[in-house]
Amino acid sequence: MTRRGGRGVWLGALGALVVLACTEKLTAPGQCPNFCPTTSIGLTDVILTSVIGRDSSYGRPIGYVNPFGDTILLAATLPTVDSRLIMRFRPVATRAIIATSDTTTGPLLAPAAVRMRLHIVRRDTAAHNLRLQFYRLPLAIDSTTTFAALVDSFNVTPVRNINVDSLLAQAGGFDSVTGDSVTVDSVFTPLRRLVFAFKFDSLQIPWSPADSGKVALGIRVTADVPTTVAIASTESGAGAGITWESRLDSAGTFVIRKQSPGAEFDSFVFDPPPPALDSNLTVGGMPSARSLLRVDLPRAIRDSTQIVRATLILVPAVAAQGVPGDSFFVAVNQVAADFGAKSPLSSSTALHPDSATVFVGKQDTVTVEVTNFLRAWQNDTTIPRTLLLRQVIELPAAGSRLQEGATFSEIRFYSSRAPGYSPALQLTYIPRYPFGTP
């Protein structure tokens, strides 16, 4: 036998002894009581009904998003709410250069025409014969103006009544009789706004030198069925604007000069006012409301388990309110710091929010996945164990989401003060693995 062969036999014999020492019996399962765990690995599933407390709603009467600061303006004619747009436009110069060759100025006379630009970002396509009715309003309108204060201004014949569906049906989106037009704005994607240019004459929007051309307008919407329309505000960067095609007298010859002031104020007023917050958890509506949930996770679970899945369970106190057949999302966010009503949202990409769909008129239990939040709490004890509920909506045609304040819809969940219906956490986790003593 060679030296190398002898070494191989010796190593093989040593390996056999090790196997025999560990298993003891070749035909039976291994028995290592000093090193093997005393129990098998398993999953535990539990619903924790008392871990959420000190939960509250915030945002009324002043909301996180208010009509005068919203990026969209909501006009609605619904059984539950009547909402009307109000806007005031900036003044224009009462004198302008008449000829391009010198600096001679002349006074503005009655305008040849006034054109108004308007961006509709969302509408109910199932509501036919959608009409926009324009009214002249007092110049004193501002953020404190109420629905009741403008009742008389809207209870008159509108200066113009425009059928949006008829205009959309025109070839090229242009009505040669009225001078109105509509185009699809592809620049502001993914919203894909409908851009309207409406023409008014000098009787419908008269020129007032004493007011430097200031004008305030109100808009109501009507259709064959109750409906709502969302129009871009100045905060969106695509607010309404007016173009005065002003006439000036140049030695007996009229010349046209254009001035295009934008809106210096826009908002919407509605009736009835939003319901006050109560002991439930309110999400959404206008002014928009949010709710905070503070979670006290048991230490045995927080420190000694591996969380596989975590689901937040919310029970509606009433059916979701809003436009029949509509829907929205309830998003669950991690807060960066718990300051109550002023808690900022976390900007961490690892703590991205999850959401659940809520259907108006339904009172189904809402469940939202929160696994990533609870795992983050296990890994970093400095993260506040506070979750924030807020509303977002989606534009189906564009596949994008708008933040809260884009709808009147809202939902109210039972809080921790309602035994048997309070918010709960359903957890699936792996308990601590009990290894034996060496």
How does this model look, in words?
The protein is mainly beta and 438 residues long. It has 3 domains: 1-31; 44-61 and 276-430, Jelly Rolls (Sandwich), CATH 2.60.120; 67-271, no CATH class. Helix content is 11%, strand content 38%. The protein is built from 5 helices and 26 strands. Strands 3, 4, 7, 8, 9, 10, 11, 12, 13, 14, 15 and 16 form a 12-stranded antiparallel beta sheet that branches. Strands 2, 18, 20, 21, 23 and 24 form a 6-stranded antiparallel beta sheet that branches. Strand 14 and strand 15 (253-259) form a beta hairpin. The longest helix has 21 residues, at 3-23. The two termini are 42 Å apart.
Gross morphology: elongated
Coarse structural class: mainly beta
Record field, number of beta strands: 26
Terminal CA distance: 42 Å
What percent of residues are in strands?
Answer: 35-45%
Q: What about the largest sheet?
A: 12 strands, antiparallel
Number of helices: 5
